[in-house]
Amino acid sequence: MNTGLSSAAAAPSIHVRDASLVYDRTVLFDRLALDISGSAWTVLLGPSGVGKTTLLRLVAGLETGASGQVESDDGAALDRRISYMAQQDLLLPWLSVRENATLGARLRGSVSNERIAAADELLARAGLTAAADLLPAACSGGMRQRAALVRTLMENRPIILMDEPFSALDAITRLQLQDIAADLLADRTVLLVTHDPLEALRLGYRIHVMSGRPARLGDAIAPVGPAPRQVTDPRLVKLQTELLAQLAEAARETAA
User: Fold this and answer.
1) Domains of the chain, first to last
2) What is the chain's mean pLDDT, rounded?
């Protein structure tokens, strides 16, 4: 698919080593390690409060109280190579959906007809053509989150950090947006936080279940076949059952 975007710079692998963080006298991480494969999706699953979003923020360089190392395999700095998509859509209420999608270019003073055309194509793929000129207040929660996804994709960064980006969508739209994201981010390094085992299995190259306090990461689960995987694949159904059992155990360990 041609979105009018240039190819992203080579997407590096990322290595988290000895990550430690204490918050409000609670040890969240103690020498935690995580390898994030380049040009692939790594997915974090776990119960609420285990530290998935905190780990995502640590990779983004937003957890200033943490210690440890977050490095890329190419040795280059990670700043300016990361796009972060939070749980909230964070759309600017006075801009239209299209204007929000091109916000980065607008802030840099680099809006062009090509960029607007690229945004329109992505908005069409997200089912937002009719909403392109609407303000966020006139959009449903699902529409707003789709617009936020398009805005993230428009930044064309090699590293994408995603914090439950599809959680506000209905089931069918969620599957459609997963398909779009898998297509558009196939050459990016993606770290995805989700509570949805099926979403993890459809998109993930490596899946880790987080549990306990301090948090630890389970051995990587590697679904078979290219993403996005079909929900009817019996191998996914089997793995989903296993993941649900792991999540139930993780919830017990984290609450203990």
Assistant:
1) 14-81+158-255 (3.40.50.300), 90-156 (no CATH)
2) 91
